[in-house]
Amino acid sequence: QVQLVESGGGLVQAGGSLRLSCAASGLTFSNVLTGWFRQAPGKEREFVAHILWSGRITLYASSVKGRFTISRDNGKNTVSLQMNNLKPDDTAVYYCAAKRPGSAEYNYWGQGTQVTVSS
Predict the structure, then answer these.
(1) What separation in angstroms does the CA of 81 have from each of 9, 43, 102?
(2) pLDDT tens per residue, range 64-80
């Protein structure tokens, strides 16, 4: 059974930083595409970033590019999202998700972690 567990969320002032982590059981991140998504109150879930199974290719939403960095630690089997220069608009529940090769949609989702950025 695959389980994704996010951690690292919290309350931070605008301009501050947080580092989110996603740990997996029953799945190896080097074999899947891993993404971070977020959902703010009253809004639809949106893509934030992803990292391919090779670990060499990443993609970011334009709203976070240059401020957020996605990375993977194969030894710990974790995927992290370093978030710098946070803005109040970054406030949301952040989700980690994984997609197996050939799958049209993400197969597995974590329960989410709350990030709140105060102005």
Answers:
(1) 11, 21, 24
(2) 999 999 999 988 999 99
